[in-house]
# Entry
Amino acid sequence: MASLKALKIRIGSVKSTQKITKAMKMVAAAKLRRAQEAAVAGRPYAERLEGVVASLARNVGVGASPLLAGTGKDQVHLLVVATSERGLAGAFNTNIVRAARRKAEELEAAGKTVRFYIAGKKGRVMKRFYPTGIVADHDLSAMKTASFDAARDIADDLIARFKAGEFDVAHLFYARFQSALVQEPIGAQIIPVAIPEVKGAKASDATVEYEPSEEAILDDLLPRNVAIQIFRALLENAASEQGSRMTAMDNATRNAGDMIKRLSIQYNRARQAAITTELVEIISGAEAL
# Structure
């Protein structure tokens, strides 16, 4: 049986850990509210912009821009894995990485070439599985909160690589926030911009005049749309990270409490056994006299 001193030290250590996890839970809960509001507020704009781009693309045709038409090939796929910079967030980062690996395995099974673009420190785990497949590791450590500037930097880099012929299709992986308990890993094609097929969709018959032309507007909106979709992913990730961390720290705090109870019982039993042993020794010594 463990010594009383060792048990006492262990109980103290677990209590210290419990204080830390409880504090982290409270911090995550405070950050979650702001991050959730930002993520929810950003969804309508991103969805509406996708709709506007889709509408213009149907009128103009996908051949109007490489970001719509693509390279004409479907061989090299770039998987953009957006994760957090910090850990201790439950399965948040693991689920995103797992979704990206699953997609990579599907593409490789179909004979495609897969490359990875890392955005976020925790995505670097991909280097273990694809040590030669990482084309970029975008540092987000300076970003305290999700920002459009960071998203635009990533979008500009991706578009430049696309125009240079480094890949044919880009997919973005992140976690869509649903609640503090549920964050859904998402994989979406962002380059070339995927135009959803609407049954019966056709060019609008309404008399609409564009100034400048539809082609010019589309050329301006396409890069902006890529940046907005990445910004949306960063916002969703920020909320998902805090929700997952809050849940993980809550579970850790409760587990620490359970461990403290078990160790306390063990400590009391050991202490009682020690006292009993001392009494037996005293009584035995008295009888010997």
User: Anything to note?
Assistant: The CA atoms of residues 177 and 240 lie 5 Å apart. Strands lie at 76-82, 113-119, 134-138, 169-177, 183-191. The two ends are 32 Å apart (CA to CA). The chain has two domains: 4-12+249-288, 22-196+207-248.
